[in-house]
Design goal:
Oligomer: single chain
Subcellular location: Secreted
Keywords: Lipid transport, Secreted, Signal, Transport
Protein name: Apolipoprotein C-I
Pfam family, one: ApoC-I
Radius of gyration: 35 Å
GO molecular function: fatty acid binding; phospholipase inhibitor activity
Length: about 90
């Protein structure tokens, strides 16, 4: 009788220990999960960054500034060509 109780207790301990080991994640699982979360994060950041860059590039202020610089550069280029004519 004592032997059967001891065996039953050992079986319960073994079963509990096996379940506990299966519940714990290995270091490889942690790295895999971390990699997936990192990829998801970077994908989200890249989409948001692209949206912001597109919005900034299409804004009225940026368009006017770009036009102004182009006009100023063309004026400077014309002035330089008039001043230093090639012979």
């Amino acid at each position: 009788m004592k032997l059967s109780i001891a065996i039953a207790v050992l079986m319960l301990v073994f079963a509990a220990h096996t379940d506990a080991q299966e519940a714990e994640k290995s270091i490889e699982d942690h790295f895999t999960e971390f990699g997936a979360k990192l990829k998801e994060f970077t994908d989200g950041i890249s989409v948001k960054t692209k949206d912001v860059v597109d919005k900034v590039g299409d804004s009225e202020f940026v368009t006017k500034t770009r036009t102004w610089f182009t006009e100023q550069f063309d004026k400077l280029k014309t002035k330089m060509d008039e001043t230093f004519q090639k012979q």
